[in-house]
Structure formats: C-alpha cells, structure tokens
Amino acid sequence: MHSSFWRIVIGIVVFLFGAAIVYRAITADWEKVALLTVFLVGSVAFLWIGKRLPMSIRAFVVVAALGNAIGYTWDLYQRFAPFDKIIHGYTLFALTAPISLWARRRLFEGMGKHPFWAIITMTSYGIALGALWEVAEWAYDLFEPLNVIKGKTDTITDIIVDTLGAVCAAFLILYFLKDDREK
C-alpha cells in the first residue's frame, strides 16, 4: 500500500488519541489522561525518531500504542478476554519490525544468502521484547492493582503469542530487506 494510506492511518490514530484524552479529561479521570498522553507522546517521538522507516512500519507501531493505551484506560484486558492475546501478538509484531530494520546492516553482515539466521535473529528480538513486556506487566501490577498478570498460564501464552508476532514481523522485514538487497 502507498505511504499516503499509512499517513491517513497515522492521522486517524493521533486523532483517536486526542479524542480519548479529551473524553477522559471531561470525566476528570486524570490518571488515564496521563497514561494516554504518555502513549501519545511516545508515539509521536517514535514517528520522529523512525522517520527513515517505511510509513507502514511506523503506522504498525502507533496502532499498537493506541491499542495498548485504550486497553489499559478502558479496561479491555478484563472486559474482553482475547484482547490480551491479540494485543500481545500485534504489539510484538509491530515492535520487532522497526528494531529489525534498524539492525539490518549488522543482521545481514556475514549471513550471505541465509535468511534462516536473519529470521532467527529478528524473532529473538521480539521474544526478548516479550519477556521485557512481561516484566513491565509485573511491575505495573505492583503499583496499580489491576491484576494484569493472571498466573503462569497467562504469562506463557503471552510469550507464545509474542513469539508468533515476532515471527510474522521477521518474515515481513525479510521481505523489506530483500527489496533493499535487490536494488
């Protein structure tokens, strides 16, 4: 898809962030206003830092940020059971992609024409991010009694879904990198 489509997606996401912030401000839920603002500022910072990344990859990340922010501020993790797994897989897909692209020069040095090792390396980035995500959920539970972590099975299935998202991102990035190497 053309970058203009992805620019529209990013514009819609930023608008939805703004609308959610205004709504939570009207209801005087300042903690949720702060959380939404942190996700919005992080998204805008990523868009600026990642300006050399493909527009689609940038859109994937800001959509993941919106999904996570809305999930926390509207308690979708508790209200809609599959939300946790969906957002885990998608977020790790979205985060593995830019990290893999940023690391692409080193990733392919010495690998020649062996995409297997590139996929393993990119997937490893995503699995590591998933593990860090689980630590962040644990830390969040210490301060905010939302019971984000629901036991060992929840943690393990989150990591499995994170891994699937990372594998999907690895194949997508391999496609992007293949285009770069053929030029």
Can you tell me about this structure?
This protein is 83% helix and 0% strand. With 183 residues, it is mainly alpha-helical. The longest helix is centred in the last third of the chain and has 31 residues, at 152-182. The model has no long low-confidence stretch (mean pLDDT 84).
Question: What would a concise description of this structure say?
Answer:
This protein has 183 residues and is mostly helical. It is 83% helix and 0% strand.
Overview features:
globular; 183 residues; mainly alpha; single chain
Number of strands: 0
- As a percent range, the share of helical residues equals over 70%
Bulk shape: globular
**Unreliable residue stretches:** none
Question: Beta-strand level of the residues, as a percent range?
Answer: under 5%
Report the end-to-end length measured between terminal Cα atoms: 19 Å
Q: Helical element count? A: 8
Name the quaternary structure. Answer: single chain
* Series of H and E elements: HHHHHHHH
Derived structural class: mainly alpha
Mean residue pLDDT: 84
Characterize the largest beta sheet: strand count, sense, and whether it forms a barrel: none
Q: Report the radius of gyration as a whole number of Å.
A: 17 Å
